[in-house]
Fold this sequence. Notes:
Number of helices: 2
Protein name: Flagellar FliJ protein
Strand content: under 5%
Structural class: mainly alpha
Subcellular location: Cell membrane
Helix content: over 70%
Largest sheet: none
Mean pLDDT: 91
Number of strands: 0
Radius of gyration: 32 Å
Membrane topology: Peripheral membrane protein
InterPro entries: Flag_assembly_chemotaxis_eff (IPR053716), Flagell_FliJ (IPR012823)
Coiled coil: 16-50
Amino acid sequence: MTAWAHSLIRISNYEVETLQKRLAEITSKKASAEMRLAVLEAEAEVERERARMDAEAGMMLQAYLAGWKARKGAAEGDLVTLDAEEEGARDALTGAYSELKKFEHVAETTRLNALIAAGKRETAAFDEMGLRKRAG
């Protein structure tokens, strides 16, 4: 493999690895956001149940639910943002992986072409030796 091909493949591998790490970070953040949303749902259910049992808690339920809706909206907004980031990261990773495969293909083709050329030179040398032997 030529030095330039090796360098391009190393750079492409690094880019793919970097994008894979970024995608893993986004996926982790997304899982945390989904968990936060589930916890918010559970908290609201607990507060509703408490309001059914306690009249004083029932009076404060509306205020709690107003704040809860704001927190839930923020969590859902974070989730939408993370979904978009994840999609972008997946697209970037797909593109980087495609570039890596192109470089690997070009390097392999170059290597095979060099082998073919070497084989042709060897065959030509043997043919020349055979012709000299026949002539001499």
